[in-house]
Amino acid sequence: VGGRLFAVSAAPMGERGAVLVLRDVTRIEKMERTQKEFVANVSHELRTPLTSVMGYVELLLDEERWESEAEEKYGGDVTETSGPPSSTRLEFLEAILKSARRMERLTEDLLVMAKVDSGEQKLNPMRTWASTLIEEAVMATSGLFMERGELEVGEVVEAEVMADMDAMLQVVGNLIENAINYGTRRGEEPRVRLAAQRSAGLSGFVEFSVQDFGMGIAMEHRERIFERFFRADKARSRATGGTGLGLSIARHLVEEQGGAIWVESDLGHGSRFCFTLPEVMVGTAAVSVSDAFM
Ligand code: ADP
């Protein structure tokens, strides 16, 4: 029916006829496929750092290897070794810590996503000035620019929006981190600009933006980067400890508050991630009506 696949089950109902049950199998199949892909993705993402941890630990514990290396180095009179030289040990432990951090970040993001999916993460939008959201975002992320780079604030409209501050700080924080990690050309200092203006296309909304001046994002990736686990630049995402989940969580949090999120990008010149939040309209109609009768 209409390109969809239905499962039909029929049960006789005495002499008077039968009950026919139609189930939309297309939807169920799609959900099952999405779930399978998700499990495969998570397993893959966890296996890579886990393999690395196990490899390094096995190496550290490989007494024979360190014994023969020490023998080669110091001659045959080595009777006892206590593992690898301390510089090697340090290097391996650091690599282990890095992989463990990756797994920690992934599980944290997965937990947030599970909460989002189950509707457990209840958002509580409240009246907030656009400028307050920007100021808090600047404060929360100033540490990222302590050593290098610059976070600029452009034009900020004087308007109130409905926003869950914690959720929005998570969204803006993620966009700023991405701008630093992916929107900075090699060898250059990160430069990120925040702004908020009345939405030109959507009346009743304020549009916030996080702009970078990096390489930009190819047209075919601009929509896909909001999908779970999608990364345009896998190597760079791994190197920065990315999980590929940040933008999909951001999209959910923004949409849950009645807004939209998207990216505009100029290849070779940078990207501008934008999201909207509903503006609080303070009795404008009432004011104009009473004014008209005065
Ligand atoms: P993560 O950063 O954990 O990989 P995200 O969902 O936050 O996951 O981002 C998905 C992908 O989108 C990134 O891996 C990167 O390829 C791309 N991306 C995100 N932000 C930018 C940006 N400002 N400039 C260029 N590419 C970006």
Describe the structure.
Mean pLDDT is 87; it is low at 285-294. This protein has helices at residues 25-61, 63-74, 86-118, 130-141, 165-182, 234-239, 246-256, 284-293; strands spanning 6-12, 18-24, 126-129, 150-156, 160-163, 191-198, 205-212, 261-266, 270-278. The protein is α+β, with helices and mostly antiparallel strands and 294 residues long. The strands form three sheets. Strands 4-6-7-9-8 form a five-stranded mixed beta sheet. A hairpin with a 3-residue loop joins strand 8 (261-266) and strand 9 (270-278). The structure holds adenosine-5'-diphosphate (ADP). Adenosine-5'-diphosphate (ADP) is lined by residues 174, 178-179, 182-183, 212, 214, 217, 225, 231-233, 237, 242-247, 271. Its EC number is 2.7.13.3. It catalyses: ATP + protein L-histidine = ADP + protein N-phospho-L-histidine.
Name the descriptors.
294 residues; 5-stranded mixed sheet; 8 helices; 9 strands; disordered C terminus; binds adenosine-5'-diphosphate
Topology:
Layout: E1 6-12, E2 18-24, H1 25-61, H2 63-74, H3 86-118, E3 126-129, H4 130-141, E4 150-156, E5 160-163, H5 165-182, E6 191-198, E7 205-212, H6 234-239, H7 246-256, E8 261-266, E9 270-278, H8 284-293
The chain binds adenosine-5'-diphosphate.
Order of helices and strands: EEHHHEHEEHEEHHEEH
Question: Largest sheet, if any?
Answer: 5 strands, mixed
How many β-strand runs?
9
Overall mean confidence score, pLDDT: 87
The set of bound ligands, ions and cofactors reads: adenosine-5'-diphosphate
Which structural category fits the helices and strands? alpha+beta
Span of the ends, CA to CA: 61 Å
Identify low-pLDDT runs: 285-294
Strand adjacency order, main sheet: 4-6-7-9-8
Shape: flat
Radius of gyration: 27 Å
Q: How would you classify the quaternary structure?
A: single chain
Number of helices: 8
Assign a percent range to the helix content.
Answer: 40-55%
What share of residues are in beta strands?
15-25%
Organism: Bryocella elongata
GO molecular function, one term: phosphorelay response regulator activity
Catalytic activity: ATP + protein L-histidine = ADP + protein N-phospho-L-histidine
Protein name: histidine kinase
